[in-house]
Amino acid sequence: MRILLVEDEIKLAHAIKRALELQKYAVDVANNGKDGLDFAIGEEFNLIILDIMLPEIDGIEICKRIREAGIHTPVMMLTAKGQISDKVTGLDVGADDYLVKPFSFEELFARIRALVRRPAQTNDPVLSKGDLTLDPKTFAVKRGGKLIELSAKEFSLLEYLLRNKNTVLNKDQIISHVWNYDSDVLPSTIEVHVKHLRDKIDIKGEESLIHTIRGRGYTIRE
Length: 222
Ligand code: CA
Known about the structure:
Number of helices: 8
Structural class: alpha/beta
Strand order of the largest sheet: 2-1-3-4-5
Bound molecules: calcium ion
CATH architecture of the largest domain: 3-Layer(aba) Sandwich
Oligomer: single chain
Low-confidence stretches: none
CATH class of the largest domain: Alpha Beta
Largest sheet: 5 strands, parallel
Strand content: 15-25%
Distance between the termini: 21 Å
CATH superfamily of the largest domain: Response regulator
C-alpha cells in the first residue's frame, strides 16, 4: 500500500510518515501544494492524505484538480480545528473523508483502513491462500496456524499478491505499490524479496505459493 502525504508542517509530516511506515505502508511526502499535485497526478497511490492549508496550492484545489484529471484514489483531508466550512468544501470537491487536527494515530490508521478496504473484502478482512493467512489489521501472517515473521517489504509484497489473486503483477507494478518514490529499486531487488518471502512462507518440497510467470511477473493463484 502506497500513500501520498501532502503536509507543510515538516515535523508533523515526518511524524505521520514514521507512524505509517511502522504500519508497513510506503509513504511519499510533499511539503507544498504544487509538489503534492505533481505527485498525485504523476504517480500511483492507494491513498492521498491532503492537508487543506498549504503553500502554493491549497488542499481543496488539489483535490478538485486530481478528480478533474480522472484520478479516483481515495482522499483524506486534514483540517484544522473549527474549520467546519473546510470539511464541507473538501467533501464537495471529491474528498472521501476528513480528519480534524489534532488527531491520534490510532484514529488515522482506522480511517485509512476503512478507505483502502475493497468492497469485496469488507466481510473478510483476513486474506488467505490455502492454509496461509494474512491479517492486514494485526500484521499476523500464519501458515498452518504457525506465525511467520516477515519484514515490512515482504509483508507488503505478500499483501499485494493476495489482494490481486490470479492477476500477474509485473515488476513495475510491484515497485510502485510496495516501495516509495525515493527508493532506488531495481528489478533484481524484487527477485531477492520474492526469494526471501518464499523461503519463509513455502513448505520444503512443495510447490511455491508464488508463481513466477517468465518475462511477465508474479502471481498467487486461487
Ligand atoms: Ca498546513
